[in-house]
C-alpha cells in the first residue's frame, strides 16, 4: 500500500510552523541576555550572586544600584554629554554626507566616479590604521580634550563614508523629472536639494540617523584618547572607569542598561522609516 502523502497546503503549513518556531527561538536567545541585564540591574546583590540565574524577576525590586551608580561617578553628566554628541554629531554627519552624495549623484564634473570610489575605499581601511595619524593631526591642531576632535573625525573621515554611499544610492532612486520641473520653475540647485530631494529622502535620513546615533553613542576608543576631562567624558568611557571604581556587578549592570536603553528607544521611534529605507533605498543603482 502507498503511504499517504501530505498535500501542498499541509506541507506549507508545516514548513511555516517550523520556520516560525526556529525564528522565535533564535529571537529569545538573542534578546534574553539584554532582558536579563536590564532586570538584574534592579536586583539586590544577594539575589544577583546567590539566587537562581534563570530567575529574571527582581525580589525585591530595588533602585539602589542606580543610586550607587550616580554616587560613584557623575553619570548624569556622562549621559548628558553622550546625548548631546549622539544628537549633534549625526546631524552634522548627515548634512555633510547628503550634500556630498547629491553632488556625486546629480552634478556632472570630471573625476566624479573616481572621487566616489575614493570615498568607498576609505570604508575598507580599519579605523585602527588611521588612529595614530588622526591623533597626531588633532594634537597639531591643539584640539585635544575638545569635542571638535570628535566632530571632525566623524564628519570628514571614513566614519562618514557609508552615509555618503547610502545617500547616493537613495538619491539615484529619486526621479530626475521632479528636480527638472523645479529648476524650470526657477528653483536653484540648492533649493532643489532642500525642497525636493531631502523631503523625499526621509527614510534614508532616518536610517543614517539611527546608524550614526548608534555609532556615536557606542564610540569608546577615540573619545577615550582625545577627551581627558571628567566633565566631558561620554557614557561608554565612564563605564570603563566605573569598572575600576565599583566591584559590584549589579551596579555595573545598571550602567550597562543605561547605555543600551537609548539605542532601543531611537530604533523604536524610527523603525518604520528604517524598514522603508532598507527596502527601497535603490542599492541596485549605478
Automatic annotation (TrEMBL):
<dbReference type="InterPro" id="IPR035906">
    <property type="entry name" value="MetI-like_sf"/>
</dbReference>
<keyword id="KW-0472">Membrane</keyword>
<dbReference type="GO" id="GO:0055085">
    <property type="term" value="P:transmembrane transport"/>
</dbReference>
<dbReference type="InterPro" id="IPR000515">
    <property type="entry name" value="MetI-like"/>
</dbReference>
<feature type="transmembrane region" description="Helical">
    <location>
        <begin position="114"/>
        <end position="135"/>
    </location>
</feature>
<comment type="similarity">
    <text>Belongs to the binding-protein-dependent transport system permease family.</text>
</comment>
<protein>
    <submittedName>
        <fullName>ABC transporter permease subunit</fullName>
    </submittedName>
</protein>
<feature type="transmembrane region" description="Helical">
    <location>
        <begin position="78"/>
        <end position="102"/>
    </location>
</feature>
<feature type="transmembrane region" description="Helical">
    <location>
        <begin position="247"/>
        <end position="270"/>
    </location>
</feature>
<feature type="transmembrane region" description="Helical">
    <location>
        <begin position="204"/>
        <end position="227"/>
    </location>
</feature>
<feature type="transmembrane region" description="Helical">
    <location>
        <begin position="21"/>
        <end position="39"/>
    </location>
</feature>
<keyword id="KW-1133">Transmembrane helix</keyword>
<keyword id="KW-1003">Cell membrane</keyword>
<dbReference type="Pfam" id="PF00528">
    <property type="entry name" value="BPD_transp_1"/>
</dbReference>
<keyword id="KW-0813">Transport</keyword>
<keyword id="KW-0812">Transmembrane</keyword>
<dbReference type="GO" id="GO:0005886">
    <property type="term" value="C:plasma membrane"/>
</dbReference>
<feature type="transmembrane region" description="Helical">
    <location>
        <begin position="147"/>
        <end position="167"/>
    </location>
</feature>
Amino acid at each position: 500500500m502507498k503511504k499517504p502523502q501530505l498535500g501542498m497546503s499541509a506541507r506549507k503549513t508545516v514548513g511555516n510552523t517550523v520556520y516560525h518556531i526556529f525564528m522565535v527561538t533564535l529571537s529569545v536567545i538573542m534578546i534574553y541576555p539584554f532582558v536579563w541585564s536590564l532586570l538584574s540591574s534592579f536586583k539586590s546583590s544577594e539575589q544577583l550572586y546567590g539566587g537562581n540565574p534563570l530567575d529574571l524577576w527582581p525580589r525585591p525590586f530595588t533602585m539602589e544600584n542606580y543610586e550607587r551608580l550616580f554616587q560613584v561617578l557623575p553619570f548624569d553628566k556622562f549621559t548628558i554629554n553622550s546625548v548631546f554628541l549622539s544628537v549633534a554629531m549625526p546631524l552634522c554627519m548627515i548634512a555633510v554626507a547628503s550634500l556630498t552624495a547629491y553632488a556625486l549623484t546629480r552634478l556632472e564634473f570630471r573625476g566624479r566616479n573616481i572621487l566616489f570610489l575614493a570615498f568607498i575605499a576609505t570604508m575598507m581601511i580599519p579605523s585602527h590604521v588611521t588612529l595614530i595619524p588622526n591623533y597626531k593631526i588633532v594634537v597639531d591642531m591643539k584640539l585635544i580634550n575638545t569635542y571638535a576632535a570628535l566632530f571632525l573625525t566623524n564628519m570628514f573621515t571614513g566614519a562618514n563614508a557609508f552615509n555618503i554611499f547610502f545617500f547616493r544610492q537613495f538619491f539615484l532612486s529619486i526621479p530626475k523629472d521632479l528636480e527638472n520641473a523645479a529648476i524650470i520653475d526657477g528653483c536653484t540647485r540648492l533649493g532643489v536639494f532642500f525642497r525636493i530631494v531631502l523631503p523625499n529622502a526621509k527614510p534614508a535620513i532616518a536610517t543614517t540617523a539611527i546608524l550614526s546615533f548608534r555609532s556615536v553613542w557606542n564610540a569608546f576608543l577615540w573619545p577615550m584618547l582625545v577627551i581627558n576631562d571628567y566633565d566631558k567624558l561620554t557614557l561608554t568611557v565612564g563605564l570603563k572607569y566605573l569598572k575600576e571604581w565599583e566591584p559590584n556587578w549589579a551596579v555595573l549592570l545598571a550602567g550597562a542598561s543605561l547605555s543600551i536603553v537609548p539605542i532601543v528607544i531611537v530604533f523604536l521611534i524610527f523603525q518604520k522609516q528604517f524598514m522603508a529605507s532598507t527596502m527601497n533605498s535603490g542599492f541596485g543603482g549605478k
